[in-house]
């Protein structure tokens, strides 16, 4: 009788410990640690809580060649959505990204970085039009478009909204679109979003910090 009563507290403690461990594991599963928990304070406004692996995409680049998720692998990619007839946001953003590219080139960090402009206006932005347009800013920049369903699939994954406005004349219309720049890592994961205002020096500084953070 005494031996049984002496063991009871140990049994109770063991059961309690097991239940506590199960509770901790369950909490960890239900509340995973965010990737940005230990990030520098200045990155908290741009980093995603967790990197988002992109689903396959099927677009066409400015040379008429297929462009897929594989084209995003192996390099860091700055991605911007817009259209060539854009009167202000697109040319300003691409000019800013040209300045970012120059900063990276001057520091010897441009080899594994690329800029991708995605047109959400495939009716007017043919590959030939995109090739002419993107080369004006930087001949090394990439441009792509495709069927609307494929553009939407890519845009929705990144949270890049856009609306094609009604025509004001045959073939004449504007497109309202996000001004954000999205950063995709060499594993084809969305890791950060840069909202307006865009400053090339600031973006380069944050970009280097993000690269160090995921190293």
CATH superfamily of the largest domain: Glutaredoxin
Cross-sheet strand order for the largest sheet: 1-10-9-4-5-6-2-3
Q: Give the biggest beta sheet.
A: 8 strands, mixed
Radius of gyration: 24 Å
What number of structural domains do the residues give? 2
Shape: globular
Q: Can you tell me about this structure?
A:
It is built from 5 helices and 10 strands; from the N terminus they run H-E-E-E-E-H-E-H-E-H-E-E-E-E-H. It folds into 2 domains: 32 residues; 173 residues, Glutaredoxin, CATH 3.40.30.10. It is globular. The N terminus is likely disordered. By secondary structure, the protein is α+β, with helices and mostly antiparallel strands.
Quick rundown:
Helix 2 crosses helix 5 (about 200-215).
């Amino acid at each position: 009788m005494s031996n049984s009563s002496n063991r009871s507290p140990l049994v109770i403690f063991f059961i309690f410990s097991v239940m506590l461990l199960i509770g901790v594991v369950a909490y960890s599963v239900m509340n995973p640690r965010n990737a940005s928990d230990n990030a520098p304070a200045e990155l908290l406004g741009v980093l995603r809580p967790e990197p988002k692996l992109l689903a396959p995409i099927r677009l066409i680049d400015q040379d008429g060649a297929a462009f897929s998720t594989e084209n995003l692998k192996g390099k860091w990619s700055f991605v911007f959505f817009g259209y060539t007839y854009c009167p202000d946001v697109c040319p300003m953003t691409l000019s800013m990204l040209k300045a970012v590219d120059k900063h990276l080139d001057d520091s010897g960090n441009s080899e594994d970085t690329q800029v991708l402009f995605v047109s959400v206006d495939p009716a007017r932005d043919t590959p030939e039009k995109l090739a002419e347009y993107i080369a004006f800013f930087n001949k090394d920049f990439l441009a792509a478009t495709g069927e609307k369903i494929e553009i939407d699939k890519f845009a929705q994954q990144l949270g890049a909204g856009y609306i094609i406005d009604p025509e004001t004349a045959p073939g004449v219309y504007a497109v309202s679109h996000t001004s954000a720049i999205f950063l995709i890592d060499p594993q084809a994961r969305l890791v950060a979003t840069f909202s307006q205002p865009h400053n090339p020096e600031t973006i380069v500084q944050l970009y280097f910090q993000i690269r160090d953070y995921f190293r």
